[in-house]
Amino acid sequence: MFRFVLRIAAALLLVVAGALAPAVAEDVPFKGTFSGRAISAVETGDLGVLLITTAGGGTATHLGKFKMVSPHLANLATLAVAGTQNFTAANGDALRASFTGQFSPIAGGLLAARIDCTITGGTGRFAGAGGGYTFDIVFDPATLSDVSVIDGTIELPDGD
What is the pTM for the complete model shown? Predict the structure, then answer.
């Protein structure tokens, strides 16, 4: 009888320990493409700094087909940018990130940048998400359009 009680106590201890164990996050690849266009540019009061909003869409792993809106500050003298990217998947789940970057002129009158983005959360399956990615972008000032490649990792919290 004593051994039976010990076995039950040990089993209960394992169940309780498992329930108290820290959740393990899952890192998944975040790779895709985006194309968009600057849809607004508003003066900020700081000389040469504009609040620009870019909108468009693309396709990415673990997001599928998405739309993205990116309000950001752009310094026209230094070509530095900082802002947010707000992705919305077809089912309505959202993924948010903040970023900073530096554009440089390239051939053809275009601007290019490798923007470092930090995932700051989301909704639905992205609630509590973290991680980061690079957003390699080529922007055409003549048409206000851009194309980008996304490459990084989303850290999804444990689903328990």
Answer: 0.82
